[in-house]
Amino acid sequence: MHTVFPTGTTIYKPEKCFNGYTLYPSMKPGVGAVLIDMNGNPVRTWPRFNGFMINLLPGGAVLGGQTGRVSKVYDHTWGADDVVQEAWDGTIEWTFNRADEIDLGDGPAWSARQNHDIVREGCPVGYYVPGMTPMAEGGRTLMLSYRSGEWPEVTRDYLPRATRMIEVTWAGEIAWDWMPAENFEQFGHGEAAKNAIMRHCRNQHGVFQNTSSYVGPNQWFDAGDERFDPENIITDDRGTMLYIISKRTGKIVWKIGPDYSSDPALKSLGCIIGPHHAHIIPKGLPGEGNVLVFDNGGAAGFGDPNPGAPNGTWNALRDCSRVLEFNPVTLELVWAFTARTQGYPCEGEDMSKFYSRYKSAAQRLPNGNTLITESHCGRLFEVTPDCEIVWEYISPHNLATREGLFFADVFRAYRYPYDWVPRLDEPMERAVVPPANGQFRIPPVDG
């Protein structure tokens, strides 16, 4: 692992990019959400928004979670205390916190316990889609939240952060609520997997989600496939599964995994491990109707024990990440980004050159490019359909605990057009051409 490398924008080819502002939440305390231009210059920060997802609404308002009122900054166990919509001038336009009542030692208090994802009605996903504008007033808000408790039909362990999906009205009422722990039998786990989850579920195994968005308008539903009703919800399991829930019935109507051996198309796609940001590419974007997902790799899944998973939990192993785009009906792989497509040789450990075991995301851009968040190294980059990197940015916000080490964690980044922030002058775009790595030198202190 390198200990010295540049931060900020390290590659930029303006003529090949979807140019605009990029918003990301830094996980470093005190930094909060950061809005940058294409050259990596910060144009605005929101220190109170920290850790999990944050969305930019037209006009410059932001929507996301804030912690510190009940729980500490980026407390993964409890999530964000308050979901807040804040105008560009700092005015609070909407807030929600009555999802779960918790007591961390100072008496009971209401909290949103929001985590990982948030979507406002008007657009099926949190990122920019031409012609689909999230509602700045009066809309529903879909978000992931937590509940703590015991679900003995799933596991003998107490679960401090079992995930739930809730849809909240503008008036602050929970209009829809769905929990994996309460729908466990729908997942279709085999007996070996159920036994592993029952004995070793701990905090999240088996009932944890990383994503929640609307399916949105699509050609599959237009052709009569009711599974892809635009109001249905697509999400993923922290194990090895992606699935769509009927919002009307609460039933899982489409899924891939957890078993990848029963279907030749699934075998060809390969096991998806610890995925994040699974969603249907919205109508109006290249690839519309396909599933786009950051397939993290690492360890996930449940079943028979193996040398890497002696108790059968996290028994699927892969030390590299993939971004996959595939047809949800045929399961045919349409596009992928991996270390191999990035240009590394395919033998040995080179596949781990693209690897973020947790968090991360992929956004389809209007020009057909894809903005990828490789969270664990704080790397954001835009690639063409041919996997050429045309923009790259390394977060400068150091999370390392020892001098000389660097760890910049970014949960998820989104790109927005300049005109979504009309209060800012459109910045000048300057190409960034990095030196060849073999010629890059740091001069001595006295030289």
CATH superfamily: TolB, C-terminal domain
Q: Unreliable runs, pLDDT <50, ≥5 residues?
A: none
Query: What is the general shape?
Result: globular
- Range of strand content: 25-35%
Strand order of the largest sheet: 1-28-27-26-25
- What's the total number of strands? 29
As for the CATH topology, it is Neuraminidase
Oligomer: single chain
Q: What's the average pLDDT?
A: 91
Structural class: mainly beta
Q: Give the helix proportion (percent range).
A: under 10%
The separation of the N and C termini measures: 26 Å
CATH class: Mainly Beta
Largest sheet: 5 strands, antiparallel
Please work out how many helical segments DSSP would assign: 4
Query: What's the alpha carbon Rg, rounded to whole Å?
Result: 21 Å
Please tell me the total number of domains. 1
CATH architecture: 6 Propeller
Entry keywords:
five-stranded antiparallel sheet; four-stranded antiparallel sheet; 447 residues; Neuraminidase; globular; mainly beta
